[in-house]
Amino acid sequence: MVRLTSKWKLKNGLTPEVLHNLAAAAELFQSKELGTLMYLMHLEAPFPLDSSGRVLVPQPGSIPNDQQTDVTFIEAYQDADAFSAHINGAIFTDFLCENLQYFEEDPEKPGWPIIETHVLELDAGFIRPKQNW
User: Fold this and answer.
1) Angle, CA 41 vertex, CA 107 and CA 10 arms, to 5°
2) Helix, strand, or coil (residue 102)
3) Other CB atoms closer than 10 Å to residue 5's CB: what's the count?
4) Is 0.70 surpassed by the pTM of this model?
5) Total Cβ atoms within 10 A of residue 22
6) Structural domain boundaries of the chain?
């Protein structure tokens, strides 16, 4: 199994169009890429605790989309072949081509956004059933 996090640097915040396109791509990955086992998109949120570890009251609100600087993905693939099929597949490559304008382009890899990726090895942990979220 291949597990990873990938952070993409936004150019000018998160526009409604790219937010819609990210959600649409995720739906296509789910329905068309059976080797893509997990594909979660996250935005930055404010820290909910003060410097002493106590809950902030009131809780801070969400960071507005136009002030977002990154989009972080948490992904899992059945194996390296499934990961390769994902990044070389039409859904991903079409998304990248159509949405690169919203991300900071990597000067060392034209056609790609600035991405910070970490491949992970599962050591321990758990995931509660979704109804508990």
Assistant:
1) 30
2) helix
3) 15
4) yes
5) 19
6) 2-123
